[in-house]
Amino acid sequence: MNISHLVEKIKKGDNKSFEKLYKLTEREVWFTCISFLKNETTAQDIMQETYITAFLKIQSLEKSSQIRSWLNRIAVNKCKKVKVKSNWTMKFLKIRQ
Known about the structure:
Layout: H1 3-11, H2 15-37, H3 40-57, H4 67-96
Helix pairs in contact: 1-2, 2-3, 2-4, 3-4
């Protein structure tokens, strides 16, 4: 089945298609998260958040053929937020010492 077709089915409310989409894209998103964060636990959390966001906002995806890049962009943005928050926390802890 074509990935664009899956996305169209998801937009129509077919949750089973979202499971298929996850299975087709999880490896790619995982490598994005782990390469960015270098921490398996945090990468797993961000990966989960990525798919939750995608599920909730799938209607906003204009071109179904761009699902892979869209998922990776969500993951990268979430990874960046974690890195910024982590850097801020580390700076704060250094100041307090």
